[in-house]
């Protein structure tokens, strides 16, 4: 199946997507991860995107749509994929409909205070991108990734001012996508408030594997 993961920053989209990608053997395509990889490698795209991302704004629709269109043309997407963090605007959703068929837009249901708490404590692996939380999802060894041993860091856009701005941008530009996909008949709500295991369990119930 072709999934969109839709929801506010810090809702747990990336955390669930990593689990679903393994369980359903489909690629996890995160536009945020692609931008961060470009920033790390110092590419032209990374240079253009860095200041926007750090401040919590959105990279232009034109750049983001081109990037996703190119990624979805790769062979590994033929049996399904998860789009995490795309689309984020109505023009992105309209463009996506011209080159992809989406089976379900999974809407992460969670309140603002919970996402602020999750983002405020998030630490990520510099090497593989795995997410942890200083209180509710600690690594086994402090400062080290359980999966690859990489160093853990705090994302530049997880500072309080940037979190606040991302939530405003979400409300203004991304939340309208809930009605967009409701109108298409493929919006599926998921309760994102529980533990990562609970959220995965609910996902598996809603989307049983064939
Ligand atoms: P992106 O990387 O997509 O960031 P985001 O939407 O702000 O979302 P996050 O990654 O912050 O949150 P998440 O929902 O993945 O939560 P996570 O699983 O990490 O985008 C970054 C930037 O790139 C954007 O701001 C924008 O500038 C640009 N960009 C990206 N896509 C774009 C687009 N389409 N158009 C334009 N610009 C674009 O979890 C968060 C924390 O909570 C972690 O600490 C985790 O351990 C913890 N946690 C997760 N699940 C649970 C749980 N169930 N219970 C308890 N804790 C949990
Ligand atoms: Mg994410």
From TrEMBL:
<keyword id="KW-0418">Kinase</keyword>
<feature type="binding site">
    <location>
        <position position="36"/>
    </location>
    <ligand>
        <name>AMP</name>
    </ligand>
</feature>
<dbReference type="GO" id="GO:0008270">
    <property type="term" value="F:zinc ion binding"/>
</dbReference>
<feature type="binding site">
    <location>
        <position position="125"/>
    </location>
    <ligand>
        <name>Zn(2+)</name>
    </ligand>
</feature>
<feature type="domain" description="Adenylate kinase active site lid">
    <location>
        <begin position="122"/>
        <end position="157"/>
    </location>
</feature>
<dbReference type="GO" id="GO:0005737">
    <property type="term" value="C:cytoplasm"/>
</dbReference>
<feature type="binding site">
    <location>
        <begin position="57"/>
        <end position="59"/>
    </location>
    <ligand>
        <name>AMP</name>
    </ligand>
</feature>
<keyword id="KW-0479">Metal-binding</keyword>
<dbReference type="GO" id="GO:0005524">
    <property type="term" value="F:ATP binding"/>
</dbReference>
<feature type="region of interest" description="LID">
    <location>
        <begin position="121"/>
        <end position="158"/>
    </location>
</feature>
<comment type="pathway">
    <text>Purine metabolism; AMP biosynthesis via salvage pathway; AMP from ADP: step 1/1.</text>
</comment>
<feature type="binding site">
    <location>
        <begin position="85"/>
        <end position="88"/>
    </location>
    <ligand>
        <name>AMP</name>
    </ligand>
</feature>
<feature type="region of interest" description="NMP">
    <location>
        <begin position="30"/>
        <end position="59"/>
    </location>
</feature>
<feature type="binding site">
    <location>
        <position position="128"/>
    </location>
    <ligand>
        <name>Zn(2+)</name>
    </ligand>
</feature>
<keyword id="KW-0545">Nucleotide biosynthesis</keyword>
<dbReference type="InterPro" id="IPR027417">
    <property type="entry name" value="P-loop_NTPase"/>
</dbReference>
<feature type="binding site">
    <location>
        <position position="145"/>
    </location>
    <ligand>
        <name>Zn(2+)</name>
    </ligand>
</feature>
<dbReference type="Pfam" id="PF05191">
    <property type="entry name" value="ADK_lid"/>
</dbReference>
<dbReference type="InterPro" id="IPR033690">
    <property type="entry name" value="Adenylat_kinase_CS"/>
</dbReference>
<comment type="subunit">
    <text>Monomer.</text>
</comment>
<dbReference type="GO" id="GO:0004017">
    <property type="term" value="F:AMP kinase activity"/>
</dbReference>
<feature type="binding site">
    <location>
        <begin position="10"/>
        <end position="15"/>
    </location>
    <ligand>
        <name>ATP</name>
    </ligand>
</feature>
<keyword id="KW-0808">Transferase</keyword>
<keyword id="KW-0963">Cytoplasm</keyword>
<dbReference type="InterPro" id="IPR007862">
    <property type="entry name" value="Adenylate_kinase_lid-dom"/>
</dbReference>
<feature type="binding site">
    <location>
        <position position="31"/>
    </location>
    <ligand>
        <name>AMP</name>
    </ligand>
</feature>
<feature type="binding site">
    <location>
        <position position="194"/>
    </location>
    <ligand>
        <name>ATP</name>
    </ligand>
</feature>
<keyword id="KW-0547">Nucleotide-binding</keyword>
<keyword id="KW-0067">ATP-binding</keyword>
<comment type="function">
    <text>Catalyzes the reversible transfer of the terminal phosphate group between ATP and AMP. Plays an important role in cellular energy homeostasis and in adenine nucleotide metabolism.</text>
</comment>
<comment type="similarity">
    <text>Belongs to the adenylate kinase family.</text>
</comment>
<dbReference type="GO" id="GO:0044209">
    <property type="term" value="P:AMP salvage"/>
</dbReference>
<dbReference type="Pfam" id="PF00406">
    <property type="entry name" value="ADK"/>
</dbReference>
<feature type="binding site">
    <location>
        <position position="122"/>
    </location>
    <ligand>
        <name>ATP</name>
    </ligand>
</feature>
<feature type="binding site">
    <location>
        <position position="148"/>
    </location>
    <ligand>
        <name>Zn(2+)</name>
    </ligand>
</feature>
<dbReference type="InterPro" id="IPR006259">
    <property type="entry name" value="Adenyl_kin_sub"/>
</dbReference>
<keyword id="KW-0862">Zinc</keyword>
<feature type="binding site">
    <location>
        <position position="155"/>
    </location>
    <ligand>
        <name>AMP</name>
    </ligand>
</feature>
<feature type="binding site">
    <location>
        <position position="166"/>
    </location>
    <ligand>
        <name>AMP</name>
    </ligand>
</feature>
<protein>
    <recommendedName>
        <fullName>Adenylate kinase</fullName>
        <ecNumber>2.7.4.3</ecNumber>
    </recommendedName>
</protein>
<dbReference type="InterPro" id="IPR000850">
    <property type="entry name" value="Adenylat/UMP-CMP_kin"/>
</dbReference>
<feature type="binding site">
    <location>
        <position position="92"/>
    </location>
    <ligand>
        <name>AMP</name>
    </ligand>
</feature>
